[in-house]
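Internal tracking record. Fields below are filled automatically when a chain is submitted to the structure queue. Please do not edit lines marked as system-generated. If the sequence contains nonstandard residues, flag them in the REMARKS field before resubmitting.
Queue: standard
Priority: normal
Entity type: single polypeptide chain
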Amino acid sequence: MEKIKKWIIILVVMMIILVIAFIILLNFQKNKDSVSPGDLLGEAEESVEIEANVVVVKDNNTFYTIEKNMQNYFLYLKVGNSQAVYQMLSQNYLEKNSLTAENVLNNLSKIQSADYEFSLKQLYLNDSTTYPVYYAKGEVLENTKKQEHYLIIYVDQITASIAVEPINKQEYETRIKSNKQNEEKQIQRNEYNKLTQTSINNEEIAKKYFKNYIYNAIHDVNAAYNSLEGQYKKAKYGSIEKYKKHIASKQQELTSMDIYSIKKQEDFQTEEQYIEYLAKLEQKGLHQYSVSKEANYTQYVCIDDYGNYYIFNETAPMQYSVILDTYTIDLPQFTAKYANSTAEQKVLLNIQKFFEAINTGDYKYAYSKLDQTFKTNNFSTELAFENYVKTNFFVQNKLAVGKPDVQNDLYIYQITITDASGKNTNKITKSFVMQLKEGTNFVMSFSK
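SYSTEM-GENERATED OUTPUT FOLLOWS
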């Protein structure tokens, strides 16, 4: 009996071993049938095929480092330093165009004006750890004239050097849409092609965006219009003709903030006239800014010396859309702040929006917020309201608000208004009455 038990145990163990062996054999056959190509290549670190990845550069320091180096390149072009330009160009470009240090300047675009500036507008990276390749789109501003430039910038991170290759727009657009991997190119470092590193802070970026928008508004109105955020552009202007009319009405303010609008001595008949012009010249600009990181963009809120808003939503360096006020569309930040405010705080926010509209010449919005009975009795048309505002308020109004008097659902504020420019010392005191409506809506009236 004991022998039979032992044999049974031995048979059971042998059956288990056979089952396990069979399962292992099936799995091996399955893996053999579905083996991936990479499994046949040996060491993974040496045999993995990497597809190049062309991506937008979103790192500010990388973007502005490339811009700085291209500014050096265009400076050499400007001053006619043929040796420097020759040594910054890629070997491929030199050989392809049969260039020497003697003839190189004859093959490249000239920069005529002493007042010029290179600005990088787009930058893409064809990634490689040691030898990254950048595709750049930039502009050279010569006074009021723009000239687009497209470039390939090869970087050797071992020698910390670069090589530049001018290309045309078509090749640039082909390159940024391609995932073709570039050949790794070593670059011999010389006196002029050293990779100069740079960094930039939020204030400098805010100033760049502000300056860029102001320049476009004056000298390239189509570019300025196209930079407006889509929903805002439709709600605020609807057409480029209305936008141009708005820009024309703000021309004096805009030109006072644009360095390219400053006249030169040759614009005057006599030196005395030029000196008189300089004495009266009043330069304005960016007064304050703030920065916030949102889910898909970085927002730069800029306010100029006239109290005008410029809200830049940046998705990558120099890639932004702009909103020019806080009231035309409900901005997420404003809506959140409004929702968490007390009734008195909401009234103050709305008064601020009302006067922001007046200060920017948006009489249509301000008129739309007047109580209907008040409008009927005092301003039967928008034009009548506009004429009243121009006669009874300042061009730029600054507010001092007292404590409210609450009567049922009406909030009454005594507001003292002064000239934000400081040119007029008079004060205007008026009583403003506001009624809060659903959401962020409101209606108001004021003492005449």
